[in-house]
Amino acid sequence: MRLGGRLGKKLAGGFTARQPPLAPDPEMIRALAGLLAETGLNEIEYAVGDHRIRVSREAAQKAPAANGHAPAAQSSPAAPSPAEAEIAAPATNGAAPPGALTSPIVGIAYLAAQPGTPPFVRVGDTVGAGETLLIIEAMKVMNQIKAPRAGRVARIFVADAEPVEYGAPLMLIE
User: Fold this and answer.
1) Side-chain half-sphere of 105: how many Cα atoms within 13 Å?
2) DSSP 38-71
């Protein structure tokens, strides 16, 4: 018998039998899920030929108790530090607010030039067009993200050394 390419084995009379679909590889899926957790990405896809494995995750949401209140076992969150208070969450629907500077690439966002140095900008700072606001590291290359226009930094949506995806809101400049 000879193999008939990706379709399967060649049968008598010139007919070709299809091979059964490829079974998922649990070790590969675990490795991809580990990469999601390690990098902070929401989705990853691995392909070899026509076979693809895609692993994605959804943001965990806590369901309220039946009476509509949070369970008593949960403790109230601690007050954010001053640094965390500067970083505001983006819109809950995933869309960037109007006027937000979004990430042009996937990578790790850095708010300062080096660890231990002051950030490029803080909430309330006035910036000029072309001024460096943060750096995004992608594939070992540090990419300066500059202000598209002059204005005031109203919100910062990312934390230092946080992974960002393409199109993710970074800052709001008014």
Assistant:
1) 15
2) HHT-SEEEEEETTEEEEEE-----PPPPTTSS--
Helix, strand, coil: what percent of the chain each, to 5?
Answer: 15, 30, 55
| Tokens coding 170 | 């970074």
What residues contact 171, with CB distance under 8 A and at least 6 apart?
Answer: 100, 101, 121, 133, 134, 153, 155, 156, 157, 158
> Can you read off the two tokens belonging to residue 121?
């900008």
CA distance linking residue 23 with residue 63, whole number of Å = 34
Structure tokens at 145: 């993200």
- pLDDT tens, 130-161? 999 999 999 999 999 999 999 999 999 999 99
CA nearest to 144, candidates 89, 101, 82: 101
pLDDT in tens, 25-70: 778 777 877 777 777 777 777 777 777 777 777 654 444 444 444 4
Q: Can you read off the two tokens belonging to residue 13?
A: 């009379």
Question: What SS3 class is residue 35?
Answer: helix
